[in-house]
Write a structure and sequence with these properties.
The chain has 5 helices and 19 strands. By secondary structure, the protein is an alpha+beta fold. It has a single domain, classed as Jelly Rolls (Sandwich). The strands form 2 sheets. Strands 1, 2, 6, 11, 12, 13, 15, 16, 18 and 19 form a 10-stranded antiparallel sheet that branches. Strands 3, 4, 5, 7, 8, 9, 10, 14 and 17 form a 9-stranded antiparallel sheet that branches. The longest helix has 28 residues. The protein is globular, with a radius of gyration of 22 Å.
Length: 322
Amino acid sequence: MIKHKRAYGLVSAILIGSMFFSLMLPVASAQVISQVASLDSWQPPEDFVNPVTLKINEFRAAGLSDEEITVQLAALGMGWYPATGATWIGEALSPEEADEMLMRKPATESSTKSESMQPGSATRTVVGRTSVMRTNKYSWTGVAAEIVCGSMSTSSGGTLRHYLCVQLGDLDCGTDWAEIVVTHNYGEVYKWYLFDLDEGAWIFLGNKNTPAYATDTFVIMLSGVKDSHGWVYDVWINYVWKASGHISSHYVQAGHQKEIYSEGQFTDDTSDAIFFYNWLHDGSSWSYWTNSTSTKWLAQDPLLGSHTLQPSSYKWRTWTQN
């Protein structure tokens, strides 16, 4: 009889523990979903040819014109900019959609303070604030980060557009550069874009297909290939190829930005954007972004930020707080 009571007690304890665990799951799911840094030795597959280029070659072999190829690619969810050869998985914006997006330029020390932008053909003025983490030297061929986006809060009458950016190129002068942009605009879901003014401008790469607080890995790196339009770069999101384009220089700046835009008032974030692990590529391998790299930090209220040197790399946190 005593054995049966002990058995019943053990079963009860297991059931109670299971119920407690199931109750805790919703709380845990609201926390950051992180992962172990894994980019240290990662390189694109050897002799990699992106799927859009493979399709272009296939259509050319079938005798299709550039215009016909562009139409066929669009039907497959792919894009091509024949003028330069830029390729992507996703879609270019229509003129109407492009009018609603902000034209881009990297932040400078002055533009973080009182930047105003005119979105497309709209008559309203949009005020922007920017927080920046950027290399001072033009020494790099790639940049990568593991990012948890956080709330990227927006509201009616407050922050209307909210961007997180991973950038590569001539960022101080803003003459030739490209960036991955994560957007969370008022009334929209989180989205992934590429911006490259010389090669199609805004390219929609798709809705963010991971949970809001998941860790996503973003990579822009030069492939080492140069053609008549410059050095070829590739964009990878969570180690899946998304796009390619060109930058004129082989060694450039790397940077991250958090940006908010409104008509004058901004919305407090309920959680930070966190750049957990950050890497720089030097043409042959990845290294962690640490205090051995000359780095500038810019921010202007109500955008705030902090950086700490973790065992591996800088951790950069940035948030909006009025």
